[in-house]
Amino acid sequence: MNMNMKLIGISLSFVWLAVAIAATSAQELSPVLDTSGQPLRRGVEYIIKLAITDNGGPFTLIDRKGYCPFYVGQRNVTADGIPVTFSPFEEGENIVRELKNFKVAFSGATICAQSTTWKVGQGEADTVDGRRLIATGDNARYGNYFYINKDGDFADIYRMEWCPAELCPTCRFRCGSLGSLFENGKRLAALDGSALPIVFERV
Hints:
The chain is of the alpha+beta class.
């Protein structure tokens, strides 16, 4: 075997080692748990609620300006939210895991001829006081992917982040935590502020 073949063999060995380490790391990441202590699963419906009800009600679609698209926001404390489903980025993964990217979409349809998948708004129309709003539509590539992280020491309280690092590990994103802001009496979901502690209740 000549030197070039040896180098190729060594390089391939490192590639397979990196793949194996990545796969092992993915398995070790904790699943996100719902309020009954069960892992969140792909395609199953959940209501996203605030862990502290004084900060508003469940997440829902908001008609922000009287025309499409709809935005992500919160109802008042007593109203019901709209269920969502999760779709992990990793093919074949059916469990939503902490720090792993996924798409999240409201169940059902709207009068708008577009997806109800969450996405980070782009441009001045989707920005309020420098904060990026969460709109809907499955056409934003990186803008559609979020992840969930533990919020404090409680077993089932989390915060949601926008940071699609799993899609592009070498990219530099202006990541942000999911929070809320008021606009014309409506509570809208937005990044670049304080994070909201949330829980997931299976429907």
